[in-house]
Amino acid sequence: MVTRADIGVIGGSGFYSLLDDAEEIELTTPYGPPSDVVTVGRIGSRSVAFIPRHGRDHRFPPHRIPYRANLWALRSLGVRQVLAPSAVGSLRAEYGPGAMVIPDQLVDRTSGRVQTYYDIDGTVHVSFADPYCASGRAVAVSAARAGGWETVDGGTLVVIEGPRFSTRAESQWFAGNGWTIVGMTGFPEAVLARELALCYTSLSLVTDHDAGVEAGEGVTHDEVLEFFAQNVTRMRTLVSDTVQALPEERECACGSALDGIKLPFELP
């Protein structure tokens, strides 16, 4: 059995079948338990830890997910690279359901979510100008294109508080700013990963056009879940291919994000 991992996957419950030689591990962290037990196993020669973002019974809405516990738990297992598959709405008419966006920028429109580990015993400022791992992005784009996805290399993910969807006016405002896709879970995951010097790569599957992009009644929760379920096998393949192509030795800037910074506590 594998009890440590160097790659983490945070996604939906449909990703459990990704792993061979799987073992469930119950963990506790200084920030409480993660969303669920962590499943550790292998994809090919790579050791991987999986956390269901919302819990296996989908009990955590986006604004209640224990983001800090999830990322801390992964790092405590040895994880240094994280893949984050998720469902998103498109803000661009040309990117319809089924497109795979690998964003390179992020806008936070959430409110009230704890977004740092360093909120006591001293101030820590980390660079977040480029929120996603350049190396992980390149691997994901290549894997998606090889898998036949309509692949968008780059773009801006705007993260809203949820759990409600956007109004038409909000959606049109987001699109007017030039942003590409909208979701509810990509923040604070990305910044917490950076604060732990982890690589973080978003695999964003477009499930619908957001409310203000085209005429209609607007997206529903059931429609999003149904479309994602229809594509979960294909998504598992993309995650598996990306995992196996990630570099074993990191040469990106993510690992040095905390260099020269005095931390108020020791990281796992």
Overview of the molecule:
The chain is of the alpha/beta class and 268 residues long. The chain has one domain: Rossmann fold (3-Layer(aba) Sandwich), CATH 3.40.50.1580. Helix content is 25%, strand content 24%. It has 6 helices and 11 strands. It has helices spanning 67-76, 134-146, 168-176, 186-195, 221-230, 232-245; strands at residues 7-11, 20-25, 38-43, 46-52, 81-90, 100-102, 105-109, 151-153, 156-160, 181-183, 199-209. Strands 1, 2, 3, 4, 5, 6, 7, 8, 9, 10 and 11 form an 11-stranded mixed β-sheet that branches. Helix 3 links the parallel strand 9 (156-160) and strand 10 (181-183). It is globular, with a radius of gyration of 17 Å. The model has no long low-confidence stretch (mean pLDDT 92).
Keywords:
268 residues; alpha/beta; Rossmann fold; eleven-stranded mixed β-sheet
